[in-house]
């Protein structure tokens, strides 16, 4: 009689289809660099450690569709990320880690160099820190006589379209830190960095108080999702 098939011995399962895709994506990343990958593909890779046994492509595409870009995904509020089907705490933690790492790297560039000679790094840091925030923040970069960063502080957080700023409090803090120069920064959650008349008036009020005390206001930078505006560059101050 023919032997009965041994039902206790199962055939080894084929690896999930996305394993090969992950390897191809990694190869492209290492051989051609990050610029060779689209936003959703880079996001797929970013989610690999958090979702080791899932195909991350559908989730990555969904996140890009909802938020718009890689940068907007990693800076999205945690509450909004939790509303996305299929995302868990491990994936959210991974995204927030990437956002924190980006901010830490750009801040390191600003810390180690003269702020005015590394202006692009200053802009990159301000954008990575504030451009995607849901509420307005007013940030102060305090500089010494060599224009190196002494402190970086968020002085006020407001609503979606307004932050109360008190010029005398700004100067008081500069004196406490023995700062000789300031860079003012705030964000426009609407995405449009164009300065308002109130932004210009507030900046001029700070300059008027700072100048007699020997404190220079180098610029007021407004950041948004679509770019940045420099009041000094626009000759508004």
TrEMBL record:
Matching SUPFAM superfamilies = JAB1/MPN domain, RuvA domain 2-like
**Family matches, as InterPro entries:** MPN, RadC_JAB, RuvA_2-like, UPF0758, UPF0758_CS, UPF0758_N
Q: Which UniProt keywords apply?
A: Hydrolase, Metal-binding, Metalloprotease, Protease, Zinc
Question: What are the boundaries of the region Disordered?
Answer: 1-20
One GO MF term on file is: metallopeptidase activity
Signal peptide interval: none
Biased region (Basic and acidic residues) positions are 1-17
Q: Which family does it belong to?
A: Belongs to the UPF0758 family.
Name the record gives this protein = DNA repair protein RadC
């Amino acid at each position: 009689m023919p032997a009965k098939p041994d039902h206790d011995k199962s055939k080894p399962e084929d690896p999930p289809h996305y394993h090969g895709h992950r390897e191809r994506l990694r190869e492209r990343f290492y051989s051609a660099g990050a610029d060779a990958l689209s936003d959703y593909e880079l996001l797929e890779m970013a989610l690999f450690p958090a979702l080791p046994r899932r195909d991350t492509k559908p989730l990555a595409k969904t996140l890009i569709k909802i938020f718009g870009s890689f940068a907007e995904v990693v800076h999205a509020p945690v509450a909004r990320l939790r509303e996305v089907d299929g995302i868990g705490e491990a994936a959210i933690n991974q995204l927030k880690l990437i956002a924190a790492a980006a901010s830490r790297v750009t801040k390191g560039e600003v810390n180690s160099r003269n702020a005015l000679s590394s202006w692009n790094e200053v802009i990159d840091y301000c954008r990575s820190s504030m451009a995607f925030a849901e509420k307005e923040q007013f940030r102060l970069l305090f500089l010494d006589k060599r224009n190196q960063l002494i402190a970086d502080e968020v002085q006020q957080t407001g609503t979606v379209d307004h932050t109360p700023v008190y010029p005398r409090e700004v100067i008081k803090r500069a004196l406490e830190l023995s700062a000789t120069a300031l860079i003012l920064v705030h964000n426009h959650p609407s995405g449009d960095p164009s300065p308002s008349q109130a932004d210009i008036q507030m900046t001029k009020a700070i300059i008027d108080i700072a100048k007699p005390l020997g404190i220079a206001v180098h610029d007021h930078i407004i950041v948004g999702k679509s770019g940045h505006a420099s009041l000094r560059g626009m000759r508004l101050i």
